Amino acid sequence: MYSPGITVKWRKKNSRTEKFIFILLANASDQVVLKNTTRLCATKPIVTVNGKFPGPTLYAREDDNVLVRVANHVQYNVTIHWHGVRQLRTGWSDGPAYITQCPIQPGQNFLYNFTLTGQRGTLVWHAHISWLRSTMCGAIVILPKKGVPYPFPKPDKEKVIILGEWWKADTEAVINQAMQTGSPPNISDAHTINGHSGPVPNCSSGGAYTLHVENGKTYLLRVINAAVNDELFFKIAGHDLTVVEVDASYTEPFKTDALFLGPGQTTTALLTADQGIGKYLIAVSPFMDTIVAVDNLTGMGYLRYNHAHAFTPTTLTSIPPVNATSVTSVFSESLRSLNSKEYPANVPLTVDHSLLFTIGVGINPCATCFNGSRTVAAINNVSFVMPTTALLQAHYYGISGVFTDDFPAKPLIPFNYTVGRGVGNFDPEKDPQKFNLVDPVERNTISVPTAGWTAIRFKADNPGVWFFHCHLEVHTTWGLKMAFLVDNGNGPDESLLPPPSDLPQC
Hints:
The protein is mainly β. Helix content is 7%, strand content 34%.
């Protein structure tokens, strides 16, 4: 089944929020431009912000108001999504194309205006139209308010590390070809660390990212998975990492030798340079535990101690197997919110509505596809068709025919959808007794295990239209997406702000 712009809708009742299971940057301008870039011994033009890949880091403090004017100087329509920013009452600046705004057309510009309320840590910004985010992405660093310390030992230095994927071909051509043929798109050719893959087969001059450290110093690594389709492991030979924050939410610290991040997720960790002076491998490798093609190349960088000799041999490390489900489970289950007096978990203890969402991939007939069929993805048997008018605009102005609000709260066609990590079917009576309602981690993006399930609780406390989708871009392209519509509550403080005067038109 296909549905144009289908949403789940709810409203605030009697000011009670319904709950569901399931540095100051005062003014900046971002120029979206093409830049010829050489990777894997081949050169191609890529879409960038200000000619940088990865793009510039946005630094701000908690509660800062952020203004970023984005000017489009390329041939594609563009938007920027500030991934994980709560956007309280400012949904017009959220960024998903045709959901909260029409795209910024070539030669046009738009001022994104939002406040970083109650958040501190690491997030990511990226293009949110087609596959442009493969090169159009960067970090968001939200520092604590002035005078407020970190809830962990102060590091000596901070470093941003952005993980990604690289295609030799133009990614717009890659996805366009896939949509014409009906087949899955070609996988990427390499994984990158801050835009560099390190040495790869048939190209020894690819260049590699190097993290320079001083013995005895502690570094705060802000690691971001900006890959298009791959969940990734991140590991540094000979060094443990202490996780202290994910997705701009502080965590109970825990030590690990490898990080696991899905696309769009961030993990901030402390690294102490406490090994012998030398050169150590940084490895980025994929995770995939089902029969799906994946880019198996390991992205490589280096941690180099100051005063290490120029030709010091590299200390290597073993990477997790590509299907290391147990490693991902241990990492995910180790995450707990800090849940302190200053940073409480605030998990909803009661539920007003229970939704059962199933996600999957299938094959549908396609008369216009070369293969006669095409791959599709769906939530509750419904595959989303992107509208030509932004959903938020249609909602705000009462434009009919753009979306419906009858998204099913459970699958239309029941099937065996509740196998979870090999422990049998989800039991709606027994499994909720094992939910962590004390200190669960707060995330903006969650990995759902293969043939498994994940339970989420959230409060519908922010009026607007909010995109809910898979962050593996190939699945989103195939239709694994929908939207939540939150009506205004009581009074102006619980209402969506009016649209800005320069909001792009479709």
